[in-house]
């Protein structure tokens, strides 16, 4: 059931394992050093599986740290919820930073099953080249490099039917084998949820150091509910939260200029959540149909409509973010 | 690969007539909101409906059905799904990981294997009883949850999947991947629904296509699968969900008055016209 990619074939992937029952209460974790040996393992049906998994510190981590050493700031774009605008924001952040010719910017797409970043940056049909120094990222501009699984797909529509363990390996390759060279910023776009991709990026980059996370939300409580979980994850994983941005807040009708709250903030929206959890609120970006259109065409909304209220809102957030990582 | 009985359908699903999955490669397109509305519509038509939420790291259904803080209990025949008060001929019950979490803000930081075993339990251990429809709401993507549910249901003959998309091409690009996933695992696609298809300004009644339009229809033509309809953005639906606790009426009754209800009735009609055989033996009918 797996798709074979030109660069990532089955041979280099670790054996997948499937547990026979959920981990018990005091499980040390199937990948930990104590796997299969702790007190809780005694009566566990998974004991043999866990015991046979490779142990010890991950030999790839020093290699990742080395490859990441030329990157000044690393920012994760996160949200527990899907479709709130993580990729849109990651793309706009990349465009905005690279507008400064003195900055070298990288954008990395960790969403393996639903990569959107290449669409938004207008480089969906590009492919990756391999050289002595590793995989060469796709350059959208002289100072904007990107990496995504999209560049490796045999066809645009190919489904990536991968379990987590396989996704982890590709993420590792992105960090270890991509020739990022020197970057001032690496913007990392993530999939929704709090699972393999999130656990892995944090684990693999622990020593390289992540500056922090930008959390994206929409105003309605159903979205905030998942975003709370993501914030809880960041706290547990020790990831600094640089701030939260509320996307799709309010819509101005192009016909009558009347404003509507499409995703109504019945519980106070992103701002109230920030106050409750003690997080910096970076601002809200209104819903503008032209943002979606620019993304569909792979163009920079900020360049196309520099005078729109949404553009200035985005630029304010970018400014606040640079300030939060100590760049300004 | 399959340890539990090769070729045998799951016993816990024995008395369920139809199983429908709600899928989308993309997040935030409205899978849970389509699942909720499908359940409410079927329930108001008098059917017994069960809803299974396999979005483990971002479960939305407890909030959608106004069931936050409810818990699942272990009964003699297995886990008891949480009942929704309906005040109609039909019935509605829900299973979600959200019911097993202590605090609503707690994150579920699970890697694949743990998610897989949870889904296995959701399929084998829930005492659904007799149902006309079991709707399965999925997370975005084509990964652990999707592979696991496809494997678990392999011999249980689900009807198929409803694919939800929003109109813009960034979304349909991910949805195409999901359709290819369905084809790979032999899951029939019952049809495509285009959600967030236009917004009618409450001030001037002008319709703006915030996320453009027509993407769903195009997708259905390209892949030759039925097009079930498009649903506009209605802020009142979100409001209804958020304010349901303060209403005297049940959610099923409130939804009947929603402007979206006739659209969903039409979609259900199209679905039922496909005349999919019930999974159960005749004697159960």
Automatic annotation (TrEMBL), chain A:
[4Fe-4S] cluster 1 binds at residues 27, 41, 44, 50. GO terms for biological process: iron-sulfur cluster assembly. Gene3D superfamilies: P-loop containing nucleotide triphosphate hydrolases. It holds the Pfam family ParA. ATP binds at residues 80-87. [4Fe-4S] cluster 2 binds at residues 253, 256. It is found in: Cytoplasm; Nucleus. HAMAP family: Mrp_NBP35, NUBP1. Component of the cytosolic iron-sulfur (Fe/S) protein assembly (CIA) machinery. Required for maturation of extramitochondrial Fe-S proteins. The NBP35-CFD1 heterotetramer forms a Fe-S scaffold complex, mediating the de novo assembly of an Fe-S cluster and its transfer to target apoproteins. Required for biogenesis and export of both ribosomal subunits, which may reflect a role in assembly of the Fe/S clusters in RLI1, a protein which performs rRNA processing and ribosome export. Belongs to the Mrp/NBP35 ATP-binding proteins family. NUBP1/NBP35 subfamily. This is Nucleotide-binding protein 35. It comes from Saccharomyces mikatae IFO 1815. The lineage of its organism: Eukaryota, Fungi, Dikarya, Ascomycota, Saccharomycotina.
UniProtKB/TrEMBL annotation, chain B:
Coiled coil: none annotated. InterPro entries: Mrp-like_CS (IPR000808), Mrp/NBP35_ATP-bd (IPR019591), NUBP2/Cfd1_eukaryotes (IPR028600), P-loop_NTPase (IPR027417), YlxH/NBP35 (IPR033756). [4Fe-4S] cluster binds at residues 201, 204. GO terms for biological process: iron-sulfur cluster assembly. Keywords: 4Fe-4S, ATP-binding, Cytoplasm, Iron, Iron-sulfur, Metal-binding, Nucleotide-binding. The keyword Nucleotide-binding applies. Pfam families: ParA. Its main location: cytoplasm. It is found in: Cytoplasm. Component of the cytosolic iron-sulfur (Fe/S) protein assembly (CIA) machinery. Required for maturation of extramitochondrial Fe-S proteins. The NBP35-CFD1 heterotetramer forms a Fe-S scaffold complex, mediating the de novo assembly of an Fe-S cluster and its transfer to target apoproteins. Required for biogenesis and export of both ribosomal subunits, which may reflect a role in assembly of the Fe/S clusters in RLI1, a protein which performs rRNA processing and ribosome export. This is Cytosolic Fe-S cluster assembly factor CFD1. It comes from Saccharomyces mikatae IFO 1815. The gene is SMKI09G1630.
